[in-house]
User: What shape does this take?
Amino acid sequence: MSGRCRINPLRTLGALALSLAAFAVTGCRQDMHDQPKYIPLRPSDFFADGRSQRTPVEGTVAANLPNRDQDPYLYTGKINGQDGTVFPFPITAKDLERGRQRYTIYCTPCHSRVGDGNGMIVRRGYRQPPNWHDDKYRNYAIGHFFDVMTNGFGAMPDYSSQVSVEDRWRIAAYIRALQLSQHATLAEVPRGEKIYGPKEEFANVGAESTSRMPRAGSRNAPTAETPEEAAPKQEPKIQPNYPGEPQKQPTKK
Assistant: This one.
């Protein structure tokens, strides 16, 4: 009797055929691929007009836009299809502060803190957005910035789900403040405010934006020191006192 184990070819073929049949049956199930739903513009035999997409019931109000019909400019930033040039509500210092906070959270990764388009993720390979201080963007209507935040533009996605309608206007107001900060004139300085010298050139220090170190003569530059003040100060030497030793009294000069 041989010690070898014989394999029955018929049994092997049968097991292989059953395995292939099981895989074939499993692969034919398309329940997750062909779901019983309609995507936009897909035809339907259920409705008489053959369309699956239905018109909302008359009087339907969007849950996130309850007052759009009463104040369309607030929600669109457009007047007769054109970008609006005014804000839908008065902008206060509190609104600007709120806009600055929202801008810092959602906008600085791409646009940077000063709006020059040199944000942190741009330095890591993301497409660079425009510089808002260019004349082209300084002359854009304020409604343009609101519209881009609402609907997106180019590589920028929309932020309508992350940022509320009012906060989008506040961010747009802060963008205007950033633009004004780089192009303000002496005539626009409020009466009684101190006027500093002309804008200085700065040396790049590798900050997130193009923030720069001030040169001498600007209001942010360090003041000059006298040689006596600049010289390192000598620290008084402290003599250790051990138990049992008499304490030395300081000498008067």
